[in-house]
């Protein structure tokens, strides 16, 4: 048996207290009622901090069109994280062969075929073609409030790096000035929100986990242009804090890809702020302990616990 690391110890504590429920797959866990209650309180705070902007609330399922997914260009940058939905599409004879394969301990998944559905990698991905179908962006642009389960294939025993996790996002569409102002505003609001929770954090320029040699260049460009910032909180370790909030300026990437245009006929720009739902809950549990009854009364009040 491997020696436990600090991360595994925290994960074991979460299992032992029943806050997370083991499934036998790294990064795939059930959540207790208390875990969900903490999350509900956090999401209520996020809603409160964003209420003045009056965003349009939209909720998509944790899966999206494969056609839209391919069009987004996700596979060019993050093929290592993608998840597809495969299904049995055979006839009765194929079914018999499938059952025989299972009985013999063979790989029954070889008979599966890719469906028209892929797992959603980020809450905002299904939004862009939906918004584009509405036509030209109004003068004031558009602002959306999203939340969805997302999937990324990166199994780990770090409880803050789950394969299925929830992401809350506010997505701004409009002119470069509108979306950069939105991101700057949320850089301040996001820090104020986490400060209200009493969690120690830092904010730093960041990059997405682009794949391959070309990905290294994309990562450097993203950092040089300061297109992505992350709010970091120590969960796994003090040396490698975890990104719990991200503030992203996509420039005109999604505007060009899906045909978002402004009233002035320009390509629409987009930006988003993302909240890692489980990660913030885990940060609270790591910082204050897994016995929620011992948390500060003011914090419990803020979260409605």
UniProtKB/TrEMBL annotation:
Is the keyword Endoplasmic reticulum assigned to this protein? Answer: no
- From what superkingdom does this record's organism come? Bacteria
What GO molecular-function term can you cite, just one? Answer: ligase activity
Q: Which InterPro entries match?
A: aa-tRNA-synth_II/BPL/LPL
Does the keyword field hold Ligase?
yes
Keyword terms: Ligase
Task: Tell me which Gene3D superfamilies the record gives.
Answer: Bira Bifunctional Protein, Domain 2
The organism named in the record is Phreatobacter cathodiphilus
Could you tell me which CDD domains the record lists for this protein? Gly_His_Pro_Ser_Thr_tRS_core
The name this protein carries in UniProt is Amino acid--[acyl-carrier-protein] ligase
């Amino acid at each position: 048996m491997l020696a436990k690391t600090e991360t595994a110890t925290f994960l074991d504590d979460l299992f032992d207290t029943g806050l997370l429920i083991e499934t036998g797959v790294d990064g795939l866990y059930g959540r207790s009622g208390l875990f969900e209650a903490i999350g509900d309180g956090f999401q209520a705070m996020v809603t409160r901090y964003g209420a003045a902007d009056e965003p349009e609330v939209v909720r998509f399922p944790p899966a999206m069109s494969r056609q839209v997914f391919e069009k987004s260009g996700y596979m060019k940058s993050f093929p290592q994280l993608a998840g597809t939905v495969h299904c049995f599409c055979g006839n009765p004879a194929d079914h018999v062969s499938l059952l025989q394969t299972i009985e013999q301990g063979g790989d029954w998944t070889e008979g599966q075929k890719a469906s028209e559905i892929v797992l959603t990698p980020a809450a905002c991905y299904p939004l862009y073609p939906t918004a584009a179908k509405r036509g030209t962006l109004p003068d004031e642009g558009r602002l959306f409030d999203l939340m969805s389960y997302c999937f990324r294939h990166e199994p780990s025993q770090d409880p803050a790096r789950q394969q299925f996790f929830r992401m809350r996002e506010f997505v701004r569409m409009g002119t470069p000035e509108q979306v950069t102002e939105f991101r700057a505003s949320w850089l301040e609001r996001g820090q104020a929100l986490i400060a209200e929770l009493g969690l120690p954090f830092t904010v730093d320029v960041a990059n997405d986990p682009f794949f391959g040699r070309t990905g290294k260049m994309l990562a450097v460009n993203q950092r040089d242009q300061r297109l992505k910032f992350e709010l970091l909180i120590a969960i796994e370790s003090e040396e490698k804090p975890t990104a719990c909030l991200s503030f992203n300026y996509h420039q005109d990437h999604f505007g060009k890809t899906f045909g978002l245009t402004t009233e002035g006929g320009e390509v629409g720009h987009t930006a988003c702020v993302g909240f890692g739902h489980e990660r913030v809950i885990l940060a609270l549990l790591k910082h204050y302990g897994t016995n929620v009854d011992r948390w500060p009364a003011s914090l419990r009040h803020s979260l409605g616990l």
